Structures are given as C-alpha cells and as structure tokens.
C-alpha cells in the first residue's frame, strides 16, 4: 500500500475509547441480573478493551420476552398512524445524533467513518419509509368473497406479538435496529440480541427510539453467546428476524420450524460483478472499488468476484488496480481514511487463510495480500487476486473480507454461468451502457438484488423494494411490503349475509348441490375472480 496513514504520534487507543459513564448508562438497558457475568470486547482498531458488558442468561431472555409481551398489548391497541409518526421523529434524531453513533460503530467494528455513515443513512431512510408507507402496506383490504354481495371478506394484518431480532457485528447499527422499525410499526414488541462485539451501538440507537416516543419496555435487549442466548430467543419469540451466516441461519430455521414460528433469514453471499465490454470503465472501476471494499469487505452484499469482459479487461484493471493501490488504510475517527480494519482475529485468520491458500495453489496477487499489524492488530490490505480456481477455498466460500478475484469472460453467457455458480444468491452488479441488456442479464441471475451501473447501494437503499437472498443466501425479505407484512398474521374476516352455506329450509342436500353447481358455473361465466 502506498498511502496508508498510520501516524505513530497519534494515540489511537485514546480516540477509540468509550467514556465509562456512557458505557454504564447504555449497558443498564441489558436484561441481566446484577450478578451477571461480564466480558470486555476490544476495539478492533487498537486491541484495547472498550467497556465491561454484562451478559444475559436464558432466564433473562424469558424475563425480556415477558416484559416485551406486556408492553406490546397496549402498543398494538394504538392506531397505526400513532405508532408510525414516532419513527419520523426517529429519522431526525438519528441524523442529529450521527456523531455519537459513528463513533460507537467505529470503536466497536473498526470500519472507516464513511462506511459507518452508510448505516446512519440506512436507519433514517428505513424509518422514513415505513413511517410514511406502513399504513398502505397494512391497510385492511376488501377481498373477493365466496359469493358476491353475500360473502363480504376483509383481509387485515395483526401483529405477531414479540419479534426476536438476532444481529451480526458487521453492520451493528443497521442490522440491529432497521429491522426493528417495521416490526414495531406493525404493532409488535422486539427483543434484540446484538452481536456481543457491537452492543453499545445498538443500545445508543435504542435511546433514540425512547426519545422519539417508543414506549419503555417495548424493545428489550439481551446479550450473550449466540448458541445460548440467541438460541433461547428463537425458543421464546413469535417470529425471528435473523441476520448472520448461512451456517447459523440453518440452525435458526430448524428451531423456528420445530416451533412453527416464522423466520426471515438474511445470510451470506459470494457476490459477482460483471463489467460488459460497453461499460463506462471509469464508473465501473470506481463502483467496483466500493463494491469490494466497503466496510473492509465485511458486508454481506459486497463483491468477491469480478467478471470482466475480455475485450476491456486490461483497460478496466488499469483503472481498478490504480484505485485499489491508492486506497488509504488505517485507524482514524474521521473521514480521512478509505478503509478501516477487520473486526476480529477470527476475521483476520479467515482472510489470511483464503489468500494464503489461493497463493499457495497458484493465484497471483495483483494488489495487497498482506496483514498490516503496524496499523492495528487486524488490519489487512485490500487485495486483488488473479487466477483463482475451483480448488481454492476463496473460489466458492465467502471470505467476508477485503479480497476479490478477477476473471476474464467471453460475454454475457459465461458471466451469467459463473455468477450463478455455487450455493449463494444474494447480490450482483452489472455494468453496461445498455440498460435493457442489464435488465436481461439480471433476469438470468440467481440474486435477490441486482444493481445495474451501481455496486450495491442502489438496490439496498431503495427501501421500497424487497431486499434479501435466494438459495443459501436466505429466506424472506427486508424492505418494501414484504419487510413489514412478514411481522404480521394475515386475518380473513368474512361476514356472510342473507343466504348461508347450508341448504335453505326444506331444500334437501341433493337439490342444494344442484343449485350451487348452477351458481358456481354462473360465477365463472360472469367473470367473478
Ligand atoms: P453468525 O451467524 O456467527 O452470528 C450472527 C448472530 O447470530 C450473532 O448475534 C450470533 O451471536 C448469533 N448466533 C450464533 N449462533 C447462534 C445460534 N445457534 N442461535 C441463534 N443465534 C446465534 O454470523 P457472523 O459471522 O457474526 O456474521 C457474518 C455473516 O453474516 C456473513 O456470512 C454475512 O454474509 C452475513 N450477513 C448477512 C447479511 C444479509 O443481509 N444477508 C447482512 C450482514 C451479514
């Protein structure tokens, strides 16, 4: 890397610290006994402890769910408009408090500030969207009854009750609270289990929920090991919104299925970006850099495979590699760096394992390829690999770090075939000047979101449209109508008038069956749906 900004004179440990009084205030919201076990996560940028965090027990999860359930009853009785308006207020509060939130995200996760800002933006946009659109998504609707005029059906949406949200550490603000917003507007309570690495960010955001008028008690927070506290939450709640790895998602799905409660699962990916021969190469190179290295590559929808049309591969790579090599990597609590650190030793080990394995089997490093302990314990350079083959771990496994492979392709057919390889189906990006061609290619891809002439943000930030994974990338969707309807039970209330379904007095079953046969034929003939 040419342009790192490690400054040995700066005491990074001091800037990546949380005021102990703030940490105490925030952690009081965790449902845990006064004698709870504690732990101290470290700031990834420095390796220094952040705060002392109490952990919840399985009994605490029950306490949290009971309290949430009690608060939910009166919340669900309020008008939807009354519930929703608080989230317009939340929108403003999140933007106003962004400095606090960005600090906490950076301290707990280690990403660059620009990437942390995407999380603030996401929460604000999701809050605005559902505050304004929930009433139309959930409006009771008249439906075609069995017999026109006689059967009057209305479909309405009742809240599930208590929604369990289990979140990972990579987008600690967005993934902890954005999914809670539609759940709450729909009339549910929420019990949230943030990842143990990134608890304070979620807790600070929930203070803003309270300030915006979300009743105390309606959102509960439990903290602890996933297989203990997360698993208990799956056992106790009425619906589970899980974001994390495909491996854990399968476990959650199994448990939810055995209880017959619903679950949405937002899981991993091995996303591809295709540069067609007619693409604007400067824009594509800029977009590809963001696509591959946003949040240090620890982003479910980030790109780990570049498929470049052979006619423009050299020209694209010139532009792309120039930008990658110029990225500024380092710790900084402001906007002066482009890339932050990986979040943990586990992530660093996984990235190293993938790159070292690829190199040992013959891949060529076009950029990066090294850890940077001089910058902080878990820093790793943005890395571009050429010649990655199916024998290499990083060919099909999600790396979840700043590592991308490049492959030359002969055209759309080969790009589609390669993009669709493997078990995932989360996100894809296509660069072409011909938008109709982009749409045609998109229709052939197994990917829940496809960005044409953008990296990942366009589809994600279009919160009116559903977002989620196909195949092993998940089940269900966030955003749009699906992102709120999933937190409800549809109820069909049909009022039968004048004539019932049984034979009228004096008419035998046989005669009645003949009458109904005529009637049903008539309904078809006159076009009843
Ligand atoms: P993970 O599955 O290990 O953990 C995610 C959450 O699940 C954590 O809160 C964890 O404590 C909890 N958990 C762990 N075991 C559990 C269990 N048995 N029961 C219930 N909860 C349990 O995932 P991770 O490694 O922390 O996160 C990274 C993964 O998340 C990547 O694969 C990434 O692609 C994926 N991800 C997906 C999306 C999406 O929207 N599709 C978004 C972000 C991250």
Instruction: Give the C-alpha Rg.
Output: 26 Å
Got a strand count?
18
The CATH C-level class name of the largest domain: Alpha Beta
How can the largest sheet be summarized? 7 strands, mixed
Principal-axes shape call: globular
Derived structural class? alpha/beta
**Termini gap:** 65 Å
Helix amount = 40-55%
Query: What's the name of the CATH homologous superfamily of the largest domain?
Result: Aldehyde Dehydrogenase, Chain A, domain 1
Order of strands across the widest beta sheet?
Answer: 12-13-14-11-10-15-16
Task: Give the number of domains.
Answer: 2
Mean pLDDT across all amino acids: 96
Overview of the molecule:
By secondary structure, the chain is of the alpha/beta class. It has 2 domains: 55-267, 3-Layer(aba) Sandwich (Aldehyde Dehydrogenase, Chain A, domain 1); 271-465, Aldehyde Dehydrogenase, Chain A, domain 2. Helix content is 43%, strand content 16%. The chain is built from 20 helices and 18 strands. It has helices at residues 12-15, 20-27, 58-77, 80-96, 98-109, 113-138, 174-178, 180-185, 199-211, 226-236, 246-259, 281-293, 313-325, 345-360, 393-396, 412-419, 435-443, 457-461, 482-485, 509-525, and strands spanning 38-39, 53-54, 141-143, 151-159, 162-166, 189-193, 219-221, 239-243, 262-266, 271-275, 303-309, 364-367, 383-386, 403-409, 427-431, 449-452, 474-475, 488-496. The strands form 4 sheets. It has a 7-stranded mixed sheet, with helices on both faces. Strand 13, helix 15 (393-396) and strand 14 form a beta-alpha-beta unit. Helix 4 packs across helix 9. The protein is globular and about 90 Å long. It starts with 11 loop residues before the first helix and ends with a helix. 51% of the residues are buried. Bound molecules: nicotinamide-adenine-dinucleotide. Nicotinamide-adenine-dinucleotide (NAD) binds next to helix 10 and helix 11.
């Amino acid at each position: 890397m040419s342009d790192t900004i490690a400054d040995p004179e700066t005491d990074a440990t001091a800037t990546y610290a949380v005021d102990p009084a703030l940490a105490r205030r925030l952690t009081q919201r965790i449902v845990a006994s006064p004698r709870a076990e504690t732990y101290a996560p470290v700031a990834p940028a420095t390796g220094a402890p952040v705060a002392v965090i109490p952990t919840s027990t399985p009994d605490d999860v029950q306490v949290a769910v009971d309290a949430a359930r009690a608060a939910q009853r009166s919340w669900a009785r309020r008008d939807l408009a009354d519930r929703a308006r608080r989230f317009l207020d939340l929108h403003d509060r999140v933007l106003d408090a962004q400095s606090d939130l960005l600090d906490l995200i950076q301290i707990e996760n280690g990403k660059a500030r620009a990437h942390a800002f995407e999380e603030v933006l996401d929460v604000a946009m999701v809050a605005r969207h559902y505050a304004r659109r929930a009433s139309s998504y959930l409006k009771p609707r008249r439906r075609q009854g069995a017999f026109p005029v006689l059967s009057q059906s209305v479909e309405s949406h009742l809240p599930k009750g208590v929604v369990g949200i289990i979140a990972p550490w990579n987008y600690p603000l967005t993934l902890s609270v954005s999914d809670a917003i539609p759940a709450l507007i729909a009339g549910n309570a929420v019990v949230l289990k943030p990842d143990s690495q990134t608890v304070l960010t979620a807790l600070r955001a929930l203070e803003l929920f309270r300030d915006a008028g979300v009743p105390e008690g309606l959102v509960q927070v439990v903290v602890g090991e996933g297989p203990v506290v997360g698993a208990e939450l799956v056992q106790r709640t009425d619906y589970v919104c899980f974001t994390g790895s495909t491996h854990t998602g399968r476990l959650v799905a199994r448990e939810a299925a055995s209880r017959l409660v619903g679950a949405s699962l937002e899981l991993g990916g091995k996303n591809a970006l295709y540069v067609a021969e007619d693409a604007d190469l400067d824009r594509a190179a800029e977009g590809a850099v963001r696509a591959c290295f946003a949040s240090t590559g620890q982003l479910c929808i980030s790109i780990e495979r570049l498929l470049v049309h052979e006619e423009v591969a050299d020209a694209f790579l010139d532009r792309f590699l120039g930008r990658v090599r110029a990225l500024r990597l380092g710790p900084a609590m402001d906007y002066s760096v482009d890339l932050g650190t990986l979040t943990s030793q586990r992530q660093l080990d996984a990235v190293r394992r993938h790159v070292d394995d690829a190199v040992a089997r013959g891949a060529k490093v076009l950029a990066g390829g090294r850890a940077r302990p001089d910058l902080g314990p878990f820093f790793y350079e943005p890395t571009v690999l050429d010649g990655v083959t199916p024998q290499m771990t990083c060919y099909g496994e999600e790396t979840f770090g700043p590592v991308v492979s490049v492959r030359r392709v002969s055209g759309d057919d080969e790009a589609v075939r390669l993009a669709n390889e493997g078990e995932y189906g989360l996100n894809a990006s296509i660069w072409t000047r011909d938008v109709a061609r982009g749409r045609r290619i998109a229709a052939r891809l197994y990917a829940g979101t496809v960005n044409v002439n953008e990296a990942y943000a366009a589809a994600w930030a279009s919160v009116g449209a559903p977002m989620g994974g196909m195949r092993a990338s998940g089940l269900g969707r966030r955003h749009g109508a699906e992102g709120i309807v999933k937190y409800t039970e549809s109820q069909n209330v049909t009022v039968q008038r004048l004539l019932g379904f049984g034979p009228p007095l004096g008419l035998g079953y046989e005669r009645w069956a003949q009458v109904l046969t005529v009637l049903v034929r008539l309904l078809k003939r006159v076009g009843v749906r």
